[in-house]
Amino acid sequence: MCGGSEFLQQGVSAAPAVSADRNTRSLAGVRSSPWAELQARRAERSAARSPASPSALSAALFPSCCSAKRPLLPAAPRQVRLSALSAGRKMSERVHRNRRVAAAAPAGKAALTHPGKAILAGGIAGGIEICITFPTEYVKTQLQLDEKANPPRYRGIGDCVTQTVRDHGVKGLYRGLSSLLYGSIPKSAVRFGVFEILSNQMRDEAGRLDSTRGLICGLGAGVMEAVLVVCPMETIKVKFIHDQTSANPKYQGFFHGVREIVRTQGIRGTYQGLTATVLKQGSNQAIRFFVMTSLKNWYKGDDPNRPMNPVVTGVFGAVAGAASVFGNTPLDVIKTRMQGLEAHKYKNTLDCAVQIMKHEGPTAFYKGTIPRLGRVCLDVAIVFIIYEEVVKVLNKVWKTE
Predict the structure, then answer these.
(1) Which of 74, 52, 78 is nearest to 62 (CA)?
(2) Residue 68: Cβ within 10 Å count
(3) Chain Cα centroid distance, residue 303
């Protein structure tokens, strides 16, 4: 028997495989084939990448059944195969579900703006903005000063522009720019600086600022800019423009005008109409920041750090500006009258409002709305665009916690 066994082994190693029965006898030589091992490893990697694939699972679980060069072994029970396929599907579903949850989760705490950056960016934005929009401010102020009690000088916006250019040239539309420029830079700096100081204290744990708190922060910023900057600078601006339209102007320039006002009327002369200015600026910024905060929260959704395109910022700013115009133009008219050269006609802010209603009617409270609407929409859009872009630059060069 031993000799017969040796003979059979020699015959198997020498004879080629010519039938299915002989294939099973040549498996010993194939088991150690590098090619077969490579195929098995590929099958295992494929199963790891696609856990829900039946073919990949079969290759990984039953490699001997998936390789033509492997010996045929008994197939796993049907229940085992179904369990393996079910586990693969559950794993795949779990991975996809986790990805969806991760995509829907908030991106983290919103980044806060350092008040120093806000002050610097606000000042730059205010200076650029007023140089662009001053002609509309000039026309608006002229129409508001053109009271109905006297024969009106202008028939409308176009007539005001035509007469000004005819009498003083194009530069006539920029008369009084210096006074407004000197006030616009600190005004915007105070506005955005105070807003960021207040909003940084009122944000929630995720760094979000809701619309109501945005309104409160805007109100605080408007009141502060009115007291510190707007009231004295607007009083000087209105007196300067009004003086330049008189027959014999007495102010030779901005600083000369300031000296004359302080000399003849004292510091109090630069704070005429303070109550109206505080009401106007407070409501103005409350409305603007309320609308801007609401639109930004809607746009950013669950990601408070989602970047905003400058065009989107400009559109949102224009909407916020329009809302503030329709919301507080009457206060702006009263403020302008209280700061004019004929402010002595009124006892106080309330008396000014009563006299306007008595002598000119309710429509007088919306005098100059159209030119103001165009100026304010452009104004707020430009300011917010420049402010946001300058803050982005400052964040790169000025590192703060």
Answers:
(1) 74
(2) 9
(3) 12
Location of structure tokens 């679980």: 61
Give residue-wise pLDDT tens across range 108-132.
677 788 999 999 999 999 999 888 8
From first CA to last CA, the distance across the chain in angstroms is 90
DSSP codes, 12-33: HHHS---SHHHHGGGHHHHTT-
CB-based burial label for 139 (10 Å; 0-12, 13-18, 19+): buried
CB 293 within 8 A of CB 210: yes
Count the Cβ atoms, other than its own, within 10 Å of residue 117: 21
Q: Give the integer Cα–Cα distance in Å for 112 and 114.
A: 6
Amino acid at 234: E
Buried/exposed 69-91: b ≥16 CB within 10 Å, e otherwise: ebeeeeeeeeeebeebbeebeee
**Chain-centre distance of CA 311, in angstroms?**
10
Residue 283 or residue 102, greater confidence = 283
In eight-state DSSP terms, residue 387 is H
> Do 328 and 256 contact (CB within 8 A), yes or no?
no
Give residue-wise pLDDT tens across range 199-230. Answer: 999 998 888 899 999 999 999 999 999 999 88
Mapped onto helix, strand or coil, the DSSP state of residue 106 is coil
Measured CA to CA in angstroms, residue 48 lies from 58, 59, 91, 156, 345 at distances of: 12, 11, 11, 78, 88
**How far, in Å, CA of 40 to CA of 58, rounded?**
11
Position 67 confidence tier, pLDDT thresholds 50, 70, 90: very low
Q: What Rg value do the Cα atoms of the chain yield, rounded?
A: 40
Q: What does pTM read for this prediction?
A: 0.60
Inter-CA distances, 302 with 104, 108, 110, 215, 340, Å:
8, 9, 11, 21, 49
Range with top average pLDDT, 61-65, 256-260, 294-298: 294-298
Q: How far are the Cα atoms of 32, 236, 364 from residue 160, in angstroms, in the given order? A: 100, 22, 17
